[in-house]
Every structure is written in structure tokens, then in C-alpha cells.
Amino acid sequence: MNGTIQAPTIEYGLLAPMLVVFGAAIIGVLVEAFAPRYLRSSIHKPLTLLSLAGAFVLTIWQARSGIPTKPAAMGAVAVDGPALFIWGTILVLAFVSVLLINDEGHFVASASAVPGSAEEERALSEGATHTEVYPLALFAVGGMLLFPAANDLLAMFVALEVMSLPLYLLCGLARRRRLLSQEAAVKYFLLGAFSSAFFLYGTALLYGYAGSVDLAKIGASLGAVGGQDTLLYIGAAMLGVGLLFKIGAAPFQAWKPDVYQGSPTPITALMASGTLVAAFGALLRVFWVALGGLEWSWTPIMWGVAILTMVTGAILAITQTDIKRMLAYSSIAHGGFLLIGVVAIGNQQQNASALSALLFYLVAYGFTTVGAFAIVTTVRDAGGEAWHLSRWAGLGKRRPLVATVFAFFLLAFAGIPLTSGFFGKYAVFQAAVDAGATPLVVVGVVSSAVAAFFYVRVIVLMFFSDPAADGPSVVIPGGTWAVGALATLATVVLGVFPQPVLDLAHTAAQSLFVR
Amino acid sequence: MEPAKIIEHSGGVIGVSWLLIALPLLGAAVLLLGGRRTDRFGHLLGVATAVASFVVGVLVFVQLLGFDPAERRLAVPLYDFIPGLTKMGLLIDPLSISFVLLITGVGSLIHIYSIGYMAHDPNRRRFFAYLNLFVAAMLLLVLADNYVGLYVGWEGVGLASYLLIGFWQHKPAAATAAKKAFIVNRVGDFGLAIGIFTIFTAFNSVSFAGVMASEAHPSQGTLTAIGLLLLLGACGKSAQLPLQSWLLDAMEGPTPVSALIHAATMVTAGVYLVTRSGAMFFPEGSTAAIAVTIVGVATLLAGAIIGTAKDDIKKALAGSTMSQIGYMMLAAGIGPAGYAFAIAHLITHGFFKADMFLGAGSVMHAMNDEVNMRKYGGLRKVMPITFATFLVGYLAIIGFPLLSGYFTKDGIIESVMEHSATLGWLAVLGAGITGFYMSRLVFMTFFGQKRWEADAHPHESPAVMTWPLIILSVGSIFLGAFLILGNRFMTFLAPAVGRPEELPSFHPFSVAGLATLALVAAGAAFAWVKYGKAEVPVVAPRGSFLTTFARRDLYGDALNEALFMRPGQWLTRLAVFFDNRGIDGLVNGLAAGIGGTSGRLRRVQTGFVRSYALSIFVGAAILVGAWFVVGNL
């Protein structure tokens, strides 16, 4: 070092998509600070959508102009094939979620007001809204972009926090059921902080082992350092805890139902799609680049976690009576299915095909879940969205189209052929069988069968029960309509004609993760 | 003489003979898919397609006559039906064209008649759609040049029959009758299906030409098995013993349906099947052929006996249909000597039985849909045209000299007599019973005192209904002489089914012929004494055990119930029991187990963030510990 400080080199071009999102987020903050209240919303909406669309175009452009083979930003960020694919996925899903956020009535008028107080009444009557939602969402999306691309543990930790902190806030902004929303935010924050501590401690232990936080260097030092295995195992396990928490894998899934339920539904959609994709990207990178040489030791553990996650998600979903909690448990179960893909990647020989299967599954699931939560926002009672399943009885008779689309999403979750969910599951299970993880696939199939029960139960409820006289009304604002249509389209196209996206995922996976 | 070779031909009208099937099928499709929009002209379209199909049939017939008799077996290839198994094509030969003319000709007349008969039915359009569907399926059945195509048509007519028997499905009796017909036919169809599978296994082909030309020589046992399986199919469709029970109930359908499907055409499909397969699977003297004759003679007697006791005019006619088809089966069973008589009787029967069914329909139409003959009587004066045409049909069926039935039925009896004297005398006995029950029917309906219900005001039917009756009765008079005299029909049919080396000659005063006439006359006279001269009680008397026996359809239904229905119900109950207790118990137990687990595990989700944190902590500890253990293995 010689006491001189070298100026860091940053490949701005490569990081452009992320920078666009962060830049727009900062502009959003400035808008909040300086623009008059009545203008804010009409500035935020186009700004947010345009920045996400622009970032998506840049991602495409980058993928077409050649995938770099070396990490960027002095080794801190790796813009490689999988990262670009995940970026594209996150940006599209975020775009769709923002369409959902755009529609009125999801967010509180004044978050600081005590629920039910005169102050809240006043804010409501003034028509106040929290337009901060937009920059917060953009910061979260930026974090989601950085998280799976981060090539050292510190950058990854920063990304984790950039992603999570805005989400903690957003969780507490639901317009209805204020207490539940605030409770969700606090729970998410506390547990998130708890898991971040694990992540950070794991980082520290791995640094102690490898002398670096760079993923590639940690990977290279495996086996080269003698006598420090305890440090390695405990560090790797703790890092794993932090990542698995974000995925919502069992036994770290407890936050998911409470948070998904309490959050404003558009934010739930963003978390259930974007966060999950980002977290899987990061998990894959850590376990593949840094801990790939340790595969023999983490595969059995991943098996256990995957089985526990699938079974917990599927079984607990059965007795749920709340549509959002049911979808949360469904999300847990799907996390388990995706973990099967992670196990399959661990096998050296066929990691590219497994990786592409996993990437496809993420796209398929992301779209369907955003669509499902979009439908949840439309079914409303006097007190807000109608979450209790009994309120959904007979929806098929009142609003056949809405119920049919929702039924279609549920079938996609169940993995019925001609939906995207079928090919997602099929690809992942196939990869796992090729990797010799057949028992895991058997558990996956059985869990799918159990899960199909509660999906179909909702369909039966919607179509074969008589609607209540005072049943919920269905309100479909323009943005939600577009989201439903897009998600349906994606679920159909990926289910009937999956090859282009499979090919794209395959191309992305072919280059694997850069070191 | 053996049947002629099948040659491919696709010129002239024969090249477009698929129109025969396509036209009524199009009619059915338009009427069914068009829905209420076609209500206004539905019946006219239905008639138009049937008549158009008849016109095509006549043109095809004319073109066929232009061929040398030895070349009158033309295959019209259409398309690859089941790739690698069979092509779909039509077989135009004297046998199939005879059926085509009968189906489309009588079919058209019945279509026209139905315009009047169904005039007040709100679903008349649907009725015509089903009739068209039936005609298309029946034509496919007789025109297909392979067994699979025949089977498709076979199932198609079964479907149309089901739909039409149950056309008035608001009547529970009609709905039940439709189901019964369908289920009993299923037994026969199953036999036919297995028969076709066996044919394919044995010959590696399912086309008539392929089977005939096949080099494979399956064992005698296989051939007999195929023959018996085809016979089972024929028994189902043609209401022969032991699958006869559905036909009487099928009379719940509208009367034109009974005339077209359950008298003139569909129920003769079994005769067609046996005749068509005769050279291959029912050679003279084979076990299968003997079985056919036994089934035929048993049914002709059983049907006649049932006919003697029925007071329901349509059921009496249905018993008669069973009996007459029994004659045809009997003739078909004795080989080339009988085929021509079987088919000729089939055609004349198609005319006079359709005539009588439509006449019965005309009577019912006049009598507020009353079917009980004990409440008719003396109708000849108020319905002169119906009476006259019915009388012609009646005289034809009992074999009054020089009318159609005289020639064809006598031909059957004569040829059977040469084959086996026992069977021949049984057929003569059947003719005598026919003379009795048909006379009974006519006397009870048209003669004697009026026994009408108070609100009955009988009147002659409209022209749209009487003209078909007149045309059919003309056929009933002359067709038999035209076909039989000079062996015209046997010579015509020979290229398709073969014929005996020595053509039979017609003896008007043979022993059997005279005996038949005498017995028929005795039967008619007995009926006159019992039902013409004497007063017919309005409430049926109890009668002897023989009467009861006949009234109960010879205990056919009781037998079916005891042998099949009750054991079947026990079996299903047993299966349901096992399903409920065993399989469902397992499944439900598993589901309950999972649900219970879910309910218990759910309590772990306390909602307290401290317990969540604890679970994360414990989970992390386990993860770290596990990794530590695995890593140090």
C-alpha cells in the first residue's frame, strides 16, 4: 500500500442499470423535499416507471453487447450472465409492482398519526398521501439489483440493508388495518436486523478464515488454509442463516406470513417477487462462487432445509383462512422447491442446466405471484381488502373473469400443465433428478400434491359455493387491470410456449458466475 | 358363388358418395350449433338434407347399375383414418346401396311425417337435428369399408337412439328407457369392440377387403370366437335374445323415432353385420352360423309371444319388430341361400313396419297420445286413410298372398326349411302367431265398439302425415313381388354376399307355404273370435299364467334383474363400501393427519416476535451444528 491511496476504478457502464434506479430514487427524494405536494404524485409515477423501464433497456443492451468475464468496480460487483438475467427479471417484476402501487387507496395518509385518532382523520380528509413510497420502492429495487450481483460480502451486506430498510418502512404504510401493518413492519425490522447480525457475523468469521471478503478469494482459499475449519463452518452457516432468512426458508420462515399479511398488498407483491428473486441470486452466488468447494458439506444441510421448507409451507398453508397468509405459506413452499434447484446446482457436472431451470422458475413464479396479489387487492369489503377466505365464496358467480384469472394463478402455483408453474417445477425437478437428488424430488412432488389441495380448495370455494348476500365488491383500477393482464399473459405464454425464456435462461446460465 | 373382389373407384357420383353422410351430418351440425336461431326453418333443413342424401343415393345406385355385375363392389378411398392401421373409405356395393336407399328413402318419408307429428313440440328443431345425426351415423355404419368405421357409425346410431328415446326426458319413463337402451347396447357394443380387436390381431387388418384378402389363416377357434363376438354385438343392436329387453321400453320415444330407428333401420344393423361378415365369419354350417340361427328362431318366437299380450299398441308392434328381425337373423344364419331373403325381408319390413308405426302414431295423434288399445276401437270410420294404409301394412306382415311380406317371409321359410326342417317348422309356427297378434291389434284398434276416453275426439291426420303413409303402403304392396320374383334381388346382391350355385325357384303351393297360410288364417280367425266379435274389456283381464308370462316380456326383465342388476348392485355396494372404508379411509386418514399436523403446527405461529426470534436462533444453532458435524465427518 505504501501509504498511497489508489482511486477506485468504477465501470459506470456496467453498473448503469443500478445507477439509473438509484439516481431516480435520489431525484425522488428531492421531489419529496422541494416539489409542492399536489405535484409530487404526478412526478413520481412517470419517474419511477421510466427509470425502471430505462434500467431494463440498459440491462438488455448490456446483455446484447457481451457479458463481461471479470467482476466490475474493483471486484465488488459481478455483472455476469445470471446477474443480468436476474436484473432483468427484478426490473420487470418491480415495474409491474409499481403499476400496482400507482393505484389509489393502498397507502396510509399519515403514517405518524395514531390509528383512529383525530389527526389521522384530518390527514385523510385533506387527501394526504405518502408519496415517499416511490423513492423508497426505488431504493429497495436498487438494493435488490445490487444484492445478487455483489461479489464481496461487504457489498452484499450493504445491498441487503439498502434493500431491506425501505421495505421495513413500506410494510408499515398500509391504509387499512393500521395496527396489523405497523406490527408487521416492526416484526420485519426486528427479525431482519436479527438475521443481518447473523450475516455480518458470518462475514466476519469468513474474513477471519480467508483473510478477504471477496467471494472469489474465499472460494480460492478453501482447502488452502489449514486448521481453521471451525471458523469456516460456523461462518458459512451463519452467512447461510442470513440468506435463508430473506428467502423465508424453514426454520427462518416465521416472519413471512405476518409480514406478507400486514403489508400493503402491492408491497407484498414486490417482496414476494423481487426480494425472493434477489435473495436467490445472492444465495446462488455465495454458495457457488465462495462456498462451491465446500459443496460436499453444505449439500446435506441444504437437503434438510429444502425438505423442511417445502413441508412446512405446504402443511401450514392447509389450515390458513386468510388469503394473504395462504399465499405467504405458498411462497414458503415455493422457496423450498427453488432450494431443490440450489441443491441440483451443487452438482458440478450439470450446474448450467440446473441454474437455467432455477432462473426460469424465478421468472415464472415471480409473475404469477404478482398477479395473484394484484387480484387480492381487487376484492374489497367495507373495511378494505377482503382477506378471509369465506369472503371469497361464490366469487366465480359474481365476477367470473376475476375468479377465473385467480383460479388460473392458483393452478400455476400448483404446477398444472399449460401454466408456467408446470414448466418451472418440471425443469427444477428434472435438474435435481439428473443431479441424483431423486428423494428430494419425491418430497417435492408430495408437497406439491398437498399444496394443490389448498389451491384447489380456493377454486372450489370461488366456483361451487353460493355467494354471500353482503359479499365483497370487486374494484379493478386501471393499473391493477394491466398487472392482472400482464401476469396472466406471462403465465400462459411461459406455460404454453416456454422455449424462448428457457433458452434465454440457458444462455444466461451458460456463462455461470464470474469469479 | 363367392362375393366379388373389391376394386377402387372414385369417378362420377360414386366419387362424391361421401356426400351421403356429409349432408345429414351438416344438417345436424347446423341445427345443434345454430341453436334457437334455426328454430324457424329447422324442420325444413332436416328434411332437405335427408331428401338430398336420398337423391345422391339414387344417383349412386344408377351409376352402380352401369357396372358389370361382377365389378359392382367399389371402394371409395377417403383419407388415412388411423395411420398405419386403416384408411377410411366407403364401400359401394349392392348390399350397402340397398341399405342406403332404405335408410334415406324411408328416412326422408319419416322426416316429412315428423313435421306434422312434432308440430306442437317446442323442441322440434332439436328433434330434427338428432334425426339427421342418426341418418348420418347409420349411413356411415353401412357404407364404411372397414370394421372401425362401421363401429364409429354403430356407436353413432347408439347415441342418436339414446338421445331420441329420451327426447321427452321430462318423462321419467323415457329417461329410464333411454338409459336402459344405452346400457344394454353397451354389452353388445363391448362384444363388437372385442371382436374387432380380435379381427385385427388375427388378420392385421380391419378393412373388409384386407380381411378377405388376408394370407393369415387363424385357427377355427379364433374364427368362431370372432363370429360369436360379432353376434353379441348384433344381438345388442338388433334386440335379439338375450339382449332384447331394451326395445320394448324404447317405445317411450316419439313415434317417428320408433318407426325409423326401432323398426326400419337401426335395429336391422345386426342383420347387416352378420350378412356383411357372412363369408368371413359365418360360413355355412359353422358354429357361429348355427348360433345365429338359434338366436334368430328363439327371438322370432319370443317376440311373437310378447306381441300377443301387449295392450300398448307400440309395444305390440315392438314385439313384432323383434320377431321379424328374428326371421332375418335366421335367414342370415343359413348362409348365401338366406342372405338375399334376409335383406329383402329387411327392406319390405322397413316399409310395412314403418307404415304401421307411423299409422300407430297417427292414431295416437288423434287419441290424445293414448297408447292403450283397449281404449281404441271402431277407428276405421273416423280415420279412413290411416286405417287403409295400416291395413295394407297388416296384410303385408302376416303374409297375405301377393303382398310384400308374403314373398319375403315365405322365401325365408322355404330356404330355412331346406336347411333344417325343425327350424323351418318353428318359423311357420311364428308366422301363425304373427297372424294372431297382428289381427288382434287391428281388430282392437279399428273394429268393434268405441271404447274411447271421454275427451278423445279422433280425426284424420294432416296430409303431411298421411302422404308418407300412402307411399309406404304402396311399397308394402309391391316391393316383395318386385324383389323376389325371378330372383331379381338375389342376383343383384350376389356380388356383395354371394349366392347359392342353384337359384331357388318360387313355388306358390309348397307344403310349407300352404301350412303357413293355414296357420295365419287360423290365427286371424282366433283373433276375430276373441277381439273382433266379442267385446273387448277396457280393463285387461287377469288372464292365465301364459298371458302373464307374455305380458311380462317372458320374464326377460325379471331375469336380467335377478341375474345382473341385483348382483351388480350388490357388487357396486360392496365396492362403494370398500371405497368408503378402505381407500377413502386411508386417503381421508392421511388428509386428516396432514390437516391435524397443520392445525397443531399452526400454534407455533404465535404472533410474538420474541418466539420468532427464538425459532430463528434455534434454527441457526441447529444449522451451525449440523454443518459443523457434516464438515468434520
Automatic annotation (TrEMBL), chain A:
Q: Write out the transmembrane intervals.
A: 12-35, 47-64, 84-101, 156-174, 186-210, 230-255, 267-288, 300-319, 326-346, 358-379, 400-420, 440-464, 476-497
What EC number is given for this enzyme? 7.1.1.-
Q: Which PANTHER family match?
A: NADH DEHYDROGENASE
Protein's membrane topology: Multi-pass membrane protein
Question: Into which family does the record put it?
Answer: Belongs to the complex I subunit 2 family.
**Compartments, record wording:** Cell membrane; Endomembrane system; Membrane
What gene, per UniProt, encodes this protein? Answer: nuoN
What's the catalysed reaction? Answer: a quinone + NADH + 5 H(+)(in) = a quinol + NAD(+) + 4 H(+)(out)
List the protein's name.
NADH-quinone oxidoreductase subunit N
Q: Which domain of life is it from?
A: Bacteria
Source organism (scientific name): Microtetraspora glauca
Q: Per its UniProt entry, what is the enzyme's top EC class, as one word?
A: translocase
